[in-house]
Structures are given as C-alpha cells and as structure tokens.
Amino acid sequence: MKQLDCFRLYDKRTTTNTGTPVADDVNSLKGGDRGPSLLEDFIMREKITHFDHERIPERIVHARGSGAHGYFECYQNFSDLTKANFLSEQGKTTPVFVRFSTVQGPRGSADTVRDVRGFAVKFYTDEGNYDFVGNNMPVFFIQDAMQFPDFVHAVKMEPDREIPTGASAHDTFWDFVSLKTEASHMVMWLMSDRAIPISLRHMQGFGVHTFRLINAQGQQKFCKFIWKPLSGACSLVWDECQKLAGKDADYNRGRLWEDIENGDYPQWELGIQLIDSTDTPFDILDATKLIPEEKCQFIPLGRMTLNRNPDNFFSETEQVAFCPSHLVPGIDFTDDPLLQGRLFSYLDTQISRLGGPNFNEIPINRPICPFMNNQRDGIHRQTINPNKASYFPNSINPDGVPVESPHGFTTFPEHMKWSKTRHRSESFNDHFSQSAMFWNSMSPIEKEHIVKAFTFELSKVKRRHIQERVVNQLLVNVDLDLAHRVSKNLGIEITNRNPVHKIELAKSPALSQLNLLSGDIKSRKVAILLSDGVSKQEVDYFSQELCKLGACCKLIAPTLSPVKTSSNETITPDTTMIGSPSILFDAVVVPRQGDNIQSNGVFKHYILEAYNHLKPILLSDCFRVFLEKLELSPDHGLIIYKNATHDFKSFTTAMASHRIYSRESKTLYIPA
C-alpha cells in the first residue's frame, strides 16, 4: 500500500518521467535564440513522445476529417525559384490527396464547431511525396513546439469530466491562452468567422511557417504558402452552426462529398509570398505572425482541383499520414521552433497510430514514383526486397544499389554561429501588434461577431478570475474598444489601464472575409419550396437559371408525395422541409403557389429561420400578407416578385454577397 501511495505524492516541481527536475518547460533547446532545435533535447523529446502516444488509434488532434482525391496543375516553370519538380513545367499535373479536419474534437464530433480547420495536401510528385500540412488560419497559438502538448491538453475535453466535446468554450483553454499572451493573435482568428466556415471549399489554407525555396543553383528564398479558394471565403452564422451540429453533424463532410459526386469540383489556387526578412518588423520564424498580403505580394503557382471521393473512408481518409518532414528537393525548413518540433512529432505519431515504421507502404501513403533504400522488416512490412545486401556502401548488389543521388534532397548550407540555450529570441516578444491589426482590419459586422464569440465562450467559463484575466490581460492589450464591449457583456470591471505598447500597423483588407467573396453563386445550395398549386413554369425557370449560374437546387415540399401543379401536372420533390431544413441551404426560393402552404407551421419556421440566418429569400407576391403577419420587412435580400424574371437578378446579386448582414439587427436571435 505504501508503494502505491508514493505515486500519489506530487512535488510542486516539474520533472521528467525519470524524476529529473526541469528548469525550463517552455522553450526547447536551440542553437542560439533563433537557431535550430537540437536533437539532444531529451526533455522536449520525452514530453512530445508521451503526448504523441496518448491516443490510439484515433488522431490526438485533427481526428474529425474529410478527404478527397484530385490533382494540382502548375501555371508555369518556376525553376528560377525552386528545383521542386512539380513546379517545373507549365501544365504539369501532380496527383494529390487532401484531408480537411477540425482540431479539438474526436472522430464522432460535429463538423460545424468553432475550431481551427486542418488543411493538409499530399502531393504525389515524381520525386516522392510532399506533404503540405497546414491550417485554415495563417498563425498558431504558440511559438515553440515545447508547449504543443500543453496547448492541446488545455483545449481538449477537461480530464475530470471529458467535456466539452469539440469546443474551446471552457476553463482550461481560456486559462492557458490568457496566461500565454503569444496566443492572442490566434485567439482573435478563432473568435472570428474564420472558425466557422460555411463549407470546406470556402476555406483558405496556410502553411503557417516560413519555409525555404531552393533552386538548382543553390539560391534560397524565404516563403509562406497560401491556398485561396476559387469559391471565395465565407462563413456560417453561430446560431446556424449550433443547429447544424444537432441536425446534420456531418454537414461539411457531406457537402464536400455531394459537390464532388455532382461534378461541382472544389478548386484552390496555391501561391507563395516571397519574404525578405528585412521588410517586416516581425521575426519571420515566429508562427504567431503573418505577413500582410498588402506588404508581400501573393504569387500564384498553380491550381488544385478535387474531383474524386475516396472509395473507402478508413483505408484512405483515416489511414493517410501527413508529416511536415516529407519534403522534395527544392523546398526546405527554417529554424522556426514550432516547425522544428513538428518535424519530430508527426513522424513519431504516425508510428504509434498506424502500427509501426512501415506506414508509408499503406496504399494511400505510398509514393507513385519508384522508391528504394536499406530500411528493412518491421511490423506490417509489405515490400519484398530481393537484394542480398541491406547496407551502404556494398559491392554485392548489382551496381551496389541503392546508391546516393547527385540530384537528391540537400539541406540549405546555412552558416551558423551559436551557443546552446533554452532562451527565446527577443524578436518573438511582440504578442499584440498583429492581434490589433487583425481586429482593425475587420468590418463592423465582423467585429460584432468577434465580440459575441468572446461573450459566448467566456460565459461558459466557470472561474471568474479566468474571465477577468482574459479581459484585462488579453483583450485590453489587443484593443480597448473590444475589451470594453466584451467586459460589458460579462459584467467585468476593466482594471488594466495601461495596455502594452504596440506597433501601429496598417489595416490589411485581405484579412476581412467580406473582401474574399467569389462574386458569383457557383456551388451555392438553393431550396425551392413547393406545395399543391405551384407554378411549374416558375419552378422550371428558377431551377434552370440557377443551374446555369452554377448553383445547385433542390425541390422541397412538406412531404415526399408528388405535388400537383397549377397546370394539373405533378412534380416529385427531392426531399422534405423537415428532412432538409433551411440551415442546409444558402438561399430559399418560393414560387407562386396555393394558399394552403401559408398555414403550414413547418413552412413558417423555414422562412423565419432562413431570414434569421441572413439568407437571400425570393418569394412570389402572393406571400406578401404572409410576410406581414410574420413581421418580416422586404430588404435587398428578402425580395418579393410579381414576374419571375423581373427580380431574379436582384436575388442572385444578393446570393453573391453571401449574407444580408444589414438584416442582423432585426433578427429574432442573438448571433455569437
């Protein structure tokens, strides 16, 4: 009994698992303040190794995912920038597999929670697999991988209750980020509409870290990678997210699958920002910072199209293994301390999750080019090696294979001079200037959503001192107006009257999603509501015209029974109003029809909900009295028509603007 009791006696000191006291649990061991992380850092390796193996077989983070096959087409020859083969020729196509994911929740969680989204692309190039392992936000919560386990432990479900699932609205998350002010920039992104995308095809993707491009002459340039969706970037509203989580937890997954099956292929443009480290006041190795596009031009490299769904979810989407360390010649790492830790962590995790070192032989992970080395055996080995010698050099195999390649991957020969240290560079110390830039770059409606998001999240926090710290130590230092608006909603007194000094940065219009709309209605989902007496001519007109513009229409009725039209024909609906509520659609059309539908409670709710979620609605003038009874006033997105063709253009223009935000103050719910 005494022996068991000794495991319950905890010292206040942090130690390794073997009892060695830890002097610094925040910074990894590096060669100089800004140098590379060192392999001898047994403290970081033990901490991350234990973290990597906490869950089997589900991913620890990014467990809830969706995948698709496709291809990347290069725009031109970029060999002046990089010797990467897949960027070497105009029109060159490279197969890809993409996995989108949420971060916090397990596999069974909902798609539409407020969260960061993973955006990972596996390029099957002629020179091996290249894994782009990024997110839909350009920055991260922490600067050093040493604290990645701490961050994930904080954002995950609280260990005593195993709740909440797939959400950051709880004490441990806000406790951590309010104590780690370097997280302030990422928290602003998380509380913005970027954290609740309307669909996967409407997300941007970012490599987060600064990388190197190296050409055949050995010349290097620093760069950041960005994916831009050709469908534009836009989001749900919070009330809609919550309802979708209950009514269709697979909403984003299903929408991606359906679009591909329908031949409406999602597309993104891959581009880079070439960075001169002297052009920015921030350290380009700091993963909590971005480079505004207005200061550093976006250079398009090519286009990715997703055109095939997986044949088997487990074999492909679940078993696909992404590692930032999977590079091809022409792309190289930097000394970003968060990236350096990821290079170890991802590989270590795959070994545990997929049962050994041969995970690369699973079909979805296998390169399409020939591969050969002297690695042998291990669990789940599939390759049959006929060579007698499994070492290098050898004189037994024909030509001594495998041999080194003169054109193989080489690390950029960066000159270094440093001392071993666990310090963090002073150039990483500015935690609020870019947070303020993000806030100032938002439109008034986006700012209001951020305030409501902070209010919702912090209202779930049980410990008052954490709420007060978020307001006084985080938000006050970002922006006083933001802090006052949130503090008023929470009944918290602002006691910090001396915000930290920040660099005054210009607004970046590229950060506001209202500037990132596609300008068209391609891929938009439209519900056309039917009942007996409906005008078949108008149903056909709306369906055909919307489809011409790239939208996807569904005919929806109170039941699945055939609907009798005003011309005594019948129309078979695709689904029902209860089975396909308005939250599944981007807009609603109600053609001319009989009066019976106006007394239907489900129909009333359908229109009210679409209105409250700021969606464009087009109705026949026979519904004018119906709208008056519901106290809904026409606006530029709630359009009443007399002639089907007369106001159709106004409706599609409203659809292209995504949401009718001017309506938000009139709605019957408070969006967060």
Describe the structure.
This protein has three domains: 2-365, Catalase core domain (Catalase HpII,  Chain A, domain 1), CATH 2.40.180.10; 441-515, Catalase, four-helical domain (Hemocyanin, N-terminal domain, Up-down Bundle), CATH 1.20.1370; 525-666, Class I glutamine amidotransferase (GATase) domain (Rossmann fold). Helices cover 26% and strands 16% of the residues. It contains 17 helices and 20 strands. Strands 2, 3, 4, 5, 6, 7, 8, 9, 10 and 11 form a ten-stranded antiparallel β-sheet that branches. It has a six-stranded parallel β-sheet with strand order 17-14-13-18-19-20, sandwiched between helices. Strands 1-12 form a two-stranded antiparallel sheet. Helix 5 packs parallel to helix 10. The protein is globular, with a radius of gyration of 27 Å. This is Catalase. Its EC number is 1.11.1.6. Residues 15-400 form the Catalase core domain. One of its GO terms (molecular function) is catalase activity.
Return the average pLDDT rounded to an integer: 92
Task: Please tally the β strands and state the result.
Answer: 20
Structural class: alpha+beta
Per DSSP, the total helix count is: 17
Using the coordinates shown, work out and report the CATH topology of the largest domain.
Catalase HpII,  Chain A, domain 1
Distance between the termini: 52 Å
Q: Quick one: CATH class of the largest domain?
A: Mainly Beta
CATH superfamily of the largest domain: Catalase core domain
Kindly state the percentage of residues in helix.
25-40%
Count of discrete domains: 3
Largest sheet, if any? Answer: 10 strands, antiparallel
- Beta-strand share of residues: 15-25%
Shape descriptor reads globular
As a whole number of angstroms, the C-alpha radius of gyration is: 27 Å
Give the uncertain stretches in residue-range form.
1-10
Name of the CATH architecture of the largest domain: Beta Barrel
